[in-house]
Amino acid sequence: MKKVIVVGGGAAGMMAAIAASQKGHKVILIEKNEKLGKKIYITGKGRGNLTNACDVSDFFESVVKNPRFLYSAIYGFTNRDMMDFMESHGIPIKVERGGRVFPVSDHASDITKALESELKSLGVEIRLDTRVTEILTGYENKVRGVRLLTDETIEALGIILATGGLSYKTTGSDGDGHRMLKDLGIRVTKCYPSLVSLKTAEKDTHSLSGLTLKNVRLSVMGEASPRKKKNTLYEGFGELLFTHDGISGPLALSASSRITGLFDGDDEKSCMGIIDLKPALDNEKLYERICRDIEAAPKREPMYLLSGLLPKSLAAVVLERLKIDAKKHLCDITKEERKALVDSLKNFSLRVTGTGDFKEAIITRGGVDVKEIDPSTMMVKNVEGLFVAGELLDVDALTGGYNLQIAFSTGHLAGSSV
Fold first, then answer.
1. Fewest Cβ atoms nearer than 10 Å: which of 4, 116, 175, 212?
2. CA-CA distances (angstroms) from residue 5 to 2, 9, 111, 193, 389?
3. Is 81 exposed, middle or buried (0-12, 13-18, 19+ CB in 10 A)?
4. 345 and 411 share a domain?
């Protein structure tokens, strides 16, 4: 038995403390907030999207950065293991669209309750409202403890750092862990907000704020290169939300993970967002439908035609973009105008000029360089006894429960290896 300190009481930290205690160590879990799992409470819009029910082998397809680094962690504590953990603690779960897993109660707090219950049953010492400011090392660069904000020191032979990234600073993720690791000479890559809204240049869509589109396709295209006429950065099908300065919703959030960092630097950069508003119909079938609708009501106005295809507010934007007279009879719409209408519905374009900031970001892109970490244990290669888990690491994934599972899996591996 040895004393182990886990710094950070989020998903990764709690799971790390559980795994370390199960190995027979005396574990102290230190959290600077007044309660554990503060960020867990807001996952899945408060419903607690704890993992994804996909096949484990498919999990890595949704990891955007450094998926191979996670093989040992994910296979060592799988999404199925996490679901079994919840159910073994009396929390029934359900699987929804896209494999998203939630507590049946739709209360994210149930996830924290299950973890806290296990911590208490294992006798883990929990210290809340306590801030660690420094990782202490000694002979041959081995950890020997931590220093608190009060200047108190606590000795330990194993330390697991799981303080989170930079997203949602109100939950305690303010970069403390990155700073402490940098002080030890550990490389931390540049951090960006990810799974965040996209800002767009067009003013005409800003009036659509609050409008949700379902079953649409979003493609994000980068600048063309000499070898590629089109540089597709992201493509997905699902739900989109217009905001006062751009777009959000599941599609935009996932797209952001593919373009994070693109707008970094002094040069103005942008990419194009293309929305297929009618993905179920190809261009020819959509053209035929428009012609049929015109023939059925030749003396009606264009808004009548489009209101059968789109929400009225969006239909007005499409008409304005095409410069079609809103009082024109449908029968007077030319063949060229009909083709232009089809093109606008299949390729509704937005110039993406940036992303939201860390205040709204769900996760952090960037963090501890994975080359500094042994992927089979989560131990820092050059500091014996120091382990890193969760959002501190330079790994991230799409929405759908993947990021929380990464936290649980890396935390479990760190706790099992300490």
1. 212
2. 10, 11, 22, 29, 13
3. middle
4. no
What total number of domains does the chain contain? 2
- Residue 264: what pLDDT? 74
Residue 267, pLDDT score: 56
- Shared domain for 208 and 232, answered yes or no, is yes
> Mind giving me the DSSP string for 220-284?
EEE---SS-S-EEEEEEEEEEEEETTEEEHHHHHHHHHHHTTTT-SSS---EEEEEES-TTS-HH
pLDDT recorded at residue 359: 86
Both 340 and 388 in one domain: the answer is: no
In whole angstroms, what is the distance from residue 331 CA to residue 333 CA? 6
Final residue of a domain: which of 307, 339, 356? Answer: 356
CA separation for the pair 131, 366 (Å, rounded): 23
- 236-295 pLDDT tens trace: 999 999 999 999 999 999 999 988 878 776 555 679 999 999 999 999 999 999 999 999
Residue 178 and residue 164 in contact, taking contact as beta carbons nearer than 8 Å: no
Domain identity same for 189 and 201: no
DSSP secondary structure letters along 340-358: HHHHHHH-EEEEEEEE--T
Q: Which helix (H) or strand (E) holds 21?
A: helix 11-22
Domain hosting residue 247, numbered range? 197-356
pLDDT at 334: 93
Residue appearing with tokens 């020997």: 144
CA 335 to chain centre: 44
Strands 63-65 and 198-200: unpaired
This prediction has a pTM of 0.89
Amino acid type, 4: V
Contacts 24+ apart (CB under 8 A), 60-63: 62/397, 62/398, 62/400, 62/402, 63/395, 63/396, 63/397, 63/402, 63/406
Q: Both tokens of residue 19?
A: 């795994």
Give every residue of the chain whose pLDDT is below 70, as ranges.
168, 172, 223-230, 265-269
CB 189, CB 366: distance < 8 Å: yes
Supply the pLDDT for residue 265: 62
